[in-house]
Amino acid sequence: MRLINYFPNESIKIKHSAHSWQEAIDISMASLLQNGFINARYIQSIKESTLKNGPYYILAPGVAMPHARPECGALKTGMSLTLLQSGVTFNDVDEPIKLLIGLSAADPDSHIGAIQALSELLSEDEHLAALLNCQTETELTDIIAKA
What we know:
By secondary structure, the protein is an alpha/beta fold. It is built from five helices and five strands.
């Protein structure tokens, strides 16, 4: 399955900013909640786990992949992508996060293909820079669609 197929409708967004990391989580997970990929408990689990364990889902400078365990309310496997034009700081992490990739994994294995495709995309410096510098949701979608 292609990477873009993991993203439900309205799940690739650009927002100006988030007032807190908690709001950034809410923004990044909203489309997955609205499309029935997760329930509200899943979002709460991410926040509770972040408070307890720190932002374990930061992948690279400026990039985070908020997620929780499947049993915490993941209903279907899918992803969302939110670019914050003004980054948000997570706890003790100095580097502001601008790109949030929300992940819902309904079971331990179904998301592996998506993670592999995403890892390949993010491992290329020019692709990551392009994502972080997009001005429109269409630009973001085009980069994901080519992965």
